[in-house]
Amino acid sequence: MTTVVLGIDSSTQSCTVEARDLDDGSLLATARTPHPPTTPPVSEQDPEAWWQALVAAVRQVMAGRDWQVAGLAVGAQCHGLVLTDEQGRALRPAKLWNDTTSAPQAAALVERYGAAWWAREIGLIPSAALTVTKLAWVAEHEPDLLARGRRLFVPHDWLTFRLTGRHCSDRSDSSGTGYFSADTMTWRTDILTDVLGPRDWEAMLPTVLRADEAAGEVLPEVAAELGITPGAVVGPGGGDQHLAAQGIGLGEGDVAWSLGTSGVIFATVADPVKDTSGGIDGVANTTGGYLPLACTLNCTKVTDAFARLLGVEHAEFARLALAAEPDPDRPVLAAYLDGERSPRLPWATGMLGGLTSAVTREQLALAAVEGVCLGLLRGERALERVTAPIGGRTVLIGGGARSEAYRQVIADLTGRASITVDAPEGTARGAAVQAAAVALGSSVAEQTRRWLPAETTRTEPRADRAAVWDRYLALADVQAEGPVPPSTR
C-alpha cells in the first residue's frame, strides 16, 4: 500500500488538495473544488462552504485508490475573521482578507497607537486586511453578535479544528492577525481589551503550535467523511504564502512573486522586520524566522478582466501583451480595480493613462500585465529597503506564473531571470511538506530541503522597460491624493 500525505490549500477562490508520496514527495494526484465567488468591498464567505469544498477535493483525490494517509496539513487565505460559538459554529459569514469595509477601523487603530508602535510591537501596521480591524468592525456594527462569540479563528485554524477538534494555530498565520507577537510567541490580549473591551480573550484564542508540532489526529468520524483510513496526523498548518515559501524551497536571498487573486512579494529572513512606513508586513514564516511581504489586492483578476474586455482566452491575451512594442509613451495602468492594500488605498479605482486614438489591443493587454507587475515591483523595492538587495533567485508562483507574458515582463522589469519550479500549487505543496515532517518526526526546514523542487522554466530579460516606471508612479500616486468611499463619490 502506498503511504501518502495530503497538502491542502484553501484559498479565496477554491480548495486544492495534493496527494504526495511520503517517501520522495512525488505528486500522485490533485483535485480542486470551487469556493463561492466574492467581490470587494464586501468580501465574505460561509466557512461551511470551505469545509464542503475540502471534503469534496479530498474524496476526489482518494477515489479508487488504496492509499494510507499518514498526515495532512492546511494552508489557507490569511487574516479572515471566523467568529464562532463554543462548538466552533460560525455566527456570521467570515470577513475575508480582501473585504475593505473595515478601512475606517484600520485608520482609527493607526491613529490611536501610531504606525511606529504597531510596527515595533506587532511587526505590521493595520490595514483593512487584518483580523483585528474586522473585529473592530464587528464590535461597531454587530456588538450583540460579538458578545455571543466564544472562539476566534482565522480560516486555516477553523479547518484544522474541523479536522481534529482542537482549537490551535501556528505562528505564521497568527502573526497576521494584528494581535499576536511572533517575537515573543504571545497573544496580545491587551490590544483586544483596549480596542474591544474587557473579557476573557485568552479563552477565545487558539493555542499556537510549534512549526513541527502536530495538532492531533483526524477525528474518526471526519476520516470516514473524507474517505481516508483513521490515524492520519494533522500538522499545525499555516498561512498561504508562508507555506508556499516551503513548497518552492525559498531560501535566504531569494524573492518570490506570487501571482494569484492577490499579488504578493515575499522573502524569508532570520531576523524580525519592523517597517514603520507600512510598506512591508513583517510577518513570521513557518520555520522560526520571518517572511517580510508586500501584498496587493489586484493581480490576476486584473488581467482576467482585460482578457474579458478584449474577448480572448488567457493564451491569446499573453500573446497580445508580448506582441506590443514597449513604446515609452505606451498606455500605463494603475491597477487598483478593487481598492488597494499596498499602498493603503482601500477605496481607490483603476486608472488607465496615455491613451490615444491609435491605441491597440496589444497595448491594452500589455498595460494590464505591466500595471500588475509595476505594483508588485514597488513592493519588491520596499522589501529591499528593509532587508537587503536581492541576490538569489526570483521565483514565480501562482496561476499567473503560467503566463509567458507575466514571466517576461517581470524579468524585464527586475533585470533578473524569472524562474518557475516544479510546484504548480505552492501552498498545497508546502502543506504537504509540513504534513510529511510531522508524520516522519523531522523538521519542516529539513523536509523542505529533501523535497526541493526542480526548476521548470527560466525567462531571461530581453527588453528595457525602465521608462514606464516614472509614468506609472505619477499615475498611481494620483489615487493617493484623496480617494473617497464609493458612497461619497
Automatic annotation (TrEMBL):
Residues 5-246 form the Carbohydrate kinase FGGY N-terminal domain. It holds the Pfam family FGGY_C. The keyword Transferase applies. InterPro entries: ATPase_NBD, Carb_kinase_FGGY, Carb_kinase_FGGY_CS, FGGY_C, FGGY_Carb_Kinase, FGGY_N, Xylulokinase. The keyword Zinc-finger does not apply. It comes from the Bacteria. It catalyses: D-xylulose + ATP = D-xylulose 5-phosphate + ADP + H(+). GO terms for biological process: D-xylose metabolic process; xylulose metabolic process. Keywords: ATP-binding, Carbohydrate metabolism, Kinase, Nucleotide-binding, Transferase, Xylose metabolism. Its EC number is 2.7.1.17. Residues 256-437 form the Carbohydrate kinase FGGY C-terminal domain. One of its GO terms (molecular function) is ATP binding. Belongs to the FGGY kinase family. This is Xylulose kinase. It comes from Arachnia propionica. The lineage of its organism: Bacteria, Bacillati, Actinomycetota, Actinomycetes, Propionibacteriales.
